[in-house]
Write a structure and sequence with these properties.
With 474 residues, the chain is an alpha/beta fold. The protein has 20 helices and 18 strands. The chain has 2 domains: 261 residues, Rossmann fold (3-Layer(aba) Sandwich), CATH 3.40.50.2000; 183 residues, Glycogen Phosphorylase B (Rossmann fold), CATH 3.40.50. Helix 12 crosses helix 15, helix 13 packs across helix 18 and helix 18 packs across helix 19. The structure holds alpha-D-glucopyranose.
Length: 474
């Protein structure tokens, strides 16, 4: 099958979050399935274009019109691609050669341009995919332009739109329709929502199938609490809204091979994890004790549950444990966490930075991983944590609910500790259950750690599910 993936980020070229991880691993996994040919389209951002390690060649150049604007488009191909997996970059220095990748006044215009330019590029190189798979609002106009202006060149191409985060929808003023999009007036209704032009809403209505990154989140998206205004539109898609839970790239996140950690280990021989714990305590100035290390690698934002963490923080630190947090974010949380950490030297290590090697060492050294997100489409760090043998404590929402079933020490079923309603006391209750098993139920605890490490979080099963969906469309 020929599949084109369109997105605004993909590791290792460019990444700001989980979307970038997914767009690295899913195309690669799909390309390993016999008979598949995958093409990924990304903007040629400054950070990619001027990175000498990313070698490309020009394939074609042409012009894209957005009403009165006539914009250059260059299509570059990555030289590191293979027969089954090609990466293409859409070049336009005016739109993409900037420091940073999102957050500009003209993001709407930049990604309207990108949607149209990708379709025009595929038409020029006569790439006619059976499936066009678009990710998040930045690619939301692709299904619209496909139907409105390119259908004759792609008569049988079907579209899939995946929501990674409904919080960002790509909204512009209503004048954007006439001033930029240049679409026939019959598309105005599809693109409009709540007095704005809304890229994500347009894609949800127009794509042949809408997916999101876990089954529970697919259900939650039908409710106002989770859907940031789009619950009605999403619910109206009925069976055409599905959830497929993400995996992780187990070749990237592998405690048996990770070069950043003190000693490699695996489920079969977890002994190295102890050395990793000691090394982490030394690196971060924690006491070298056997108390459990609780860890978080996170953005410091309230939707990640930092508000309820702050609420329980002092009570938590009265317990026999150590706490490690890595991440940056909202200033009020940075200040609050830093000041409490300074009161607990040797016990609470606060690291206001993001550093992926340190993150690896934290996953490897930690016993317990905290992820109390208010909502979580999928979440990748709880999967990495389990793979590294850190038992998760999570709010049972979205992908956290699907990937961390509650542990029952009597039967050995489950993978972690959960709480059901978003509040600090229930979060602390779940942590206390974890601590209880860590201290008093050692055999069950060690079996749990091992079972978490052995669980298959690879992309193989999710990639098969995407294939089934694609097949159902053609
Ligand atoms: C977004 C979501 C996160 C998900 C990731 C990849 O970043 O917030 O939950 O894991 O996308 O799909």
């Amino acid at each position: 099958m020929k599949i084109a993936m369109i997105a605004s980020e993909a590791a290792p070229f460019i990444k700001t979050g989980g979307l970038g991880d997914v767009l690295q691993a899913l195309p690669a996994e799909l390309s390993r399935i016999k008979g598949n040919q995958i093409a990924v389209f990304l903007p040629y951002y400054k950070k990619i274009k001027y990175n000498p390690a990313i070698e490309t060649e020009l394939v074609t150049a042409f012009t894209v019109n957005l009403t009165w604007r006539q914009q250059y488009a260059g299509l570059f191909r990555w030289k590191g691609g293979s027969g089954n997996l090609q990466i293409y970059f859409l070049d336009n220095e005016f739109y993409f050669c900037r420091d940073g990748i999102y957050g500009f006044y003209d993001d709407g215009e930049r990604f309207a341009y990108f949607a149209k330019a990708v379709l025009a590029a595929m038409a020029r190189i006569e790439l006619r995919p059976e499936i066009l798979h678009c990710h998040d609002w930045q690619t939301g106009l692709v299904p619209i332009y496909l139907e409105a202006e390119f259908r004759d060149r792609f008569p049988s191409t079907r579209t899939v739109f995946t929501i990674h985060n409904v919080e960002y929808q790509g909204k512009t003023g209503p004048e954007f329709f006439n001033e930029v999009l240049g679409l026939d007036d019959r598309w105005r209704g599809v693109c409009s929502f709540d007095g704005c032009i809304n890229f994500m809403k347009a894609a949800v209505v127009q794509a042949d199938l809408v997916t999101t990154v876990s089954e529970t989140y697919a259900t939650e998206l039908r409710y106002p609490y989770f859907a940031h205004g789009l619950s009605g539109v999403l619910a109206s898609r009925g069976e055409k809204l599905r959830g497929i839970t993400n995996g992780i790239d187990v070749s990237v996140y592998d405690p048996a091979a990770d070069p950043a950690i003190a000693q490699n280990y695996s489920a079969a021989d977890p002994s190295g994890k102890r050395a990793c714990k000691r090394a982490l305590q030394q690196e971060l100035g924690l006491a070298e004790s056997d108390a459990p290390i609780l860890a978080m690698v996170t953005r410091l934002a309230s939707h990640k549950g930092i508000d309820i963490l702050c609420y329980i923080l002092r009570r938590l630190l009265e317990r026999e444990l150590q706490l490690v947090i890595v991440g940056t974010g909202e200033a009020k949380y940075e200040h609050a966490l830093n000041s409490v950490a300074s009161e607990y030297p040797g016990k609470f290590s606060m690291n206001l930075r993001f550093d992926s090697a340190l993150a690896s060492r934290v996953y490897a050294g930690a016993d317990i991983y905290l992820m109390p997100s208010r909502s979580e489409p999928c979440g990748l760090s709880q999967l990495i944590a389990m793979h590294y043998g850190a038992v998760p404590v999570v709010n049972a929402t979205g992908g956290l609910k699907d990937t961390v079933p509650p542990f029952n020490p009597d039967t050995g079923e489950g993978r972690g500790y959960t709480f059901q309603s978003y509040n600090g006391d229930d979060f602390l209750g779940a942590i206390d259950r974890a601590l209880g098993d860590y201290y008093n139920n050692r055999a069950a605890w060690e079996a749990l750690v091992r079972a978490d490490m052995e669980t298959d979080f690879s992309w193989q099963a999710p990639a098969q599910k995407y294939m089934e969906l694609y097949c159902s469309l053609i």
